[in-house]
Amino acid sequence: MTPDRVVLITGASSGIGEATARAASAAGHRVVLAARSLDRLNALAAELGGPERALAVECDVTEWPEQEALVRRAVDAFGGIDVAFANAGFGAKRGFLAESPEHWREMVLTNVYGAALTIRACLEELRSRRGHLLLMGSVAGRKVAPGSLYSATKWAVTAMSEAARQELDGSGVRVTLVSPGTVETAFYDEPVGGAQLTADDVARAVLFAIGQPAHVDVNEILIRPTVQGF
Question: What integer is the mean pLDDT of 114-126?
Fold first, then answer.
C-alpha cells in the first residue's frame, strides 16, 4: 500500500491496536485512533504527528451512533478511509462459572457486535476507495479451549470475515482476518512457556497484508509463537 493512506483502528489505545497505529504511522500513513480511553488516544495521536497525521476519537464500538460519528470525523479530517481495522475486543476467564454474566455480555457485544458495526460504518467508504477491511481474529477462532466463551466470539469473527469477503467480492475491497496465537500480555490464563508473540509482531503482519499490491487479497494471517503447539 502506498504511503499516506488513511488507516482507522478501533481498540487503538493499547496492545495490538496501539502497535499497529505506530507501525502504520511509521510507514507514512495517517491514522484514525478509536477507543474508549480518550486520554491515552490523545497522547498517542500527539506522538504520531498531531492533527495533520493522527486523529483521536472516543468511541464505544458497541454503540452505533458512536461508530457513525467515528467515520464522519475520519472523513471530515482526512477525506476518507482506506483501511479499517476492527481490532477492539477483550477476553474472559475460561469456565462457564468463572465470569459474571455482565462481563460475558460486554465481551460478546464488543468482540462480535462491535466488529460488525465497524464493518457497517466503514463499508461505503471502503467501497468508494477500493480499500481494505481487517478483523482481529484469534487462534481461538480456529481451536476451542475448555469453557471458553471468548473462543466462541472469535469463531464468530472468523465467519464474519468470510461473510464480508464474499459480500465484497468484485468490489475491489480486500478482507483480511488476523489470527494471533498467544501474545505477550496478561490476557491468557495459562500462557505457553517461552517467548510469546509481541504486539509489534502482530502489527507487522497487519502491515504486510495492507502492503500487498491491489490485486493480492491476503484473506487470513494465522500467526503463532514457535513455542505454541496448539
Answer: 98
